[in-house]
Design brief:
Elements (H helix, E strand, L loop, with lengths): L16 H7 L8 H9 L11 H15 L14 E6 L6 E5 L6 E4 L5 H15 L6 H5 L6 H4 L13 H15 L3 H17 L3 H12 L1
Antiparallel strand pairs: 1-2, 1-3
Helix pairs in contact: 8-9
Length: 212
């Protein structure tokens, strides 16, 4: 939502866009904050995304970039949660809150713990990156349930090469950076190449990633 000077006042996301926007134009029941907001709004811009998770990440990035007046500003990064990609040989994606002292990459901050957990759940389903701690990882004698339900490629048991696991990580980073068109193009190319090589199992996995 923008004011007459094209300054961003508010960034939000919605599964039902018509319902969400119409809620701001009610004759009664608006909070004082939203009443003040709507007195200044002269334009509404819409960005379509491929999924709710992509919308969540885009919303977070836009808030951090533009600091809209009517969003809850993320003033203290130590208060808000992040997604942390660890610096291990086989990196782990995990929920993180606090000072960023541990090595690795950080994505966020996110507006709520629920937003991080929702994103991690979908990330694990799509990219199959481990979420176990290092003690659990180093003491496995067989693949765990996460591998059985196709939410991890089981690097703990060497069921995936380091190069292939790193490819999963690279895709996850692209996704978390919001470069989803680039990611989709990469997965489509790999799916096509696998099909041409008659590796239909791999092609099916890439297809499932696109549909997730």
């Amino acid at each position: 939502m923008l004011d007459r000077d094209k300054q961003i006042l508010y960034v939000g996301k919605a599964g039902n866009l018509k319902k969400r926007i119409s809620s701001y134009f009610r004759q009664s029941g608006l909070s004082l904050k939203n009443q003040s907001l709507m007195r200044q709004v002269v334009d509404i811009r819409i960005i379509l995304t491929h999924s709710e998770t992509e919308a969540l990440i885009l919303e977070n990035n836009l808030i951090k970039q533009h600091h809209p007046k009517y969003n809850i500003l993320l003033r203290d990064d130590k208060t808000y949660p992040y997604i942390h990609l660890t610096n291990d040989k086989y990196p782990r994606l995990k929920f993180y809150r606090g000072g960023r002292a541990a090595k690795g990459k950080y994505f966020g901050p996110y507006p709520s713990a629920g937003a991080v957990k929702e994103t991690l759940d979908i990330m694990q389903k799509v990219f199959r990156i481990r979420n176990c701690d290092n003690v659990f990882f180093k003491n496995r004698s067989r693949p765990c349930l996460q591998h059985q339900i196709k939410r991890c490629t089981a690097p703990c048991m060497n069921l995936v090469s380091q190069a292939d696991y790193q490819a999963q990580i690279d895709q996850a980073i692209i996704f978390l950076q919001g470069k989803n068109d680039e990611l989709i193009a990469t997965i489509e190319q790999k799916m096509q190449a696998s099909a041409e090589q008659l590796n239909f199992e791999a092609a099916a996995l890439y297809r499932d990633q696109l549909q997730a």
